[in-house]
Amino acid sequence: MLIETHAHLDYPDFASDLDDVLCRAADAGVTRIITIGTSIENSRQAIEFAEKYPAVYATIGVHPTYVEKAEEDVMTPLREMAKHPRVVAIGETGLDYHRLPSEKVAREKQVQVMTALRTETDEEIEAQIRDGAYKSKQASLFQQQLDLAVELRLNVVIHQRDAWNDTLEILRDYGRQVSGVFHCFGGTREQAEEVLAMGHLVSFTGIVTFKNGASVREVAAGLSLGEFMVETDCPYLAPVPFRGKRCEPAHTRLVAESIASARGISLEEIARATTATAEQFFRFNR
């Protein structure tokens, strides 16, 4: 029995065959699937799927890259949706600095690598100002959702990309008031231990099956059972042997098998441990 802790079932990739996708997941031993909210609209869709399918549960939240499109007041609808019995966490929320306004300007202007030898253009200066505003908006949205999680005593699904230090700095202000899972973890052993020491968890995707995923696989092999969960982040990051194709919840089994192999233990042990961790973290029957 496995729990897929991070899927995006509302994405168009699954529009034509979702029933078949869920059947394949069940056949693979994936008994529960958590579909993730990334905006107010997608959070509502996540709840609709959770209402329709007994194996599906929902999280509700606004992804950091949606910050420019987000409604002025996201807390009111999120607070209302959180009352739904099929909602098991807040998120995904966090910080994402992967594509900042200044990078877009740099690409458009074909900025040279030797930045020290050039004079900043007005566009670059303006883009850097927008970078600061963009990061500030993300931080505010992240903090609002953490506040809501504390208020409602829900845990949090955390997205972090190219923003490690800022993400941890915000979380430190909350201490043990809130617990999160760093989904799609791809960091070092030291980073994993840092968040574990703060009371959070990590979760691994199909990256652990990749040829270039050896370092992440080693992290998954070295952590204690009970400190991590498994996911796919589908439709992205399809594991070997499905790389380049659509990922789906059934592939959670391949993630678990890869970690089991790296640890030298059985799939059943990984399934039992990660399921128990997910049940404790998400509290499906709260």
Name a few traits of the molecule.
single chain; 286 residues; alpha/beta; eight-stranded parallel β-sheet; 8 strands; 44% helix
Summarize the structure.
It contains 10 helices and 8 strands. It is of the alpha/beta class and 286 residues long. The chain has an 8-stranded parallel β-sheet with strand order 1-2-3-4-5-6-7-8.
The end-to-end span amounts to 20 Å
Question: How much strand?
Answer: 15-25%
Q: What can be said about the biggest beta sheet?
A: 8 strands, parallel
Series of secondary-structure elements, N-terminal to C-terminal: EHEHEHEHHEHEHEHEHH
The Cα radius of gyration reads: 19 Å
Q: What can you see in these coordinates?
A:
The protein is of the alpha/beta class. Helices cover 44% and strands 15% of the residues. Helix 3 links the parallel strand 3 and strand 4 (87-96). The protein is globular, with a radius of gyration of 19 Å.
Could you give the topology of this structure?
Blueprint: E1 2-7, H1 18-27, E2 30-35, H2 40-52, E3 56-60, H3 75-81, E4 87-96, H4 101-109, H5 122-152, E5 156-161, H6 164-172, E6 180-182, H7 189-197, E7 201-204, H8 214-222, E8 228-230, H9 252-263, H10 267-282
Parallel strand pairs: 1-2, 2-3, 3-4, 4-5, 5-6, 6-7, 7-8
Helix pairs in contact: 4-5, 8-9, 9-10
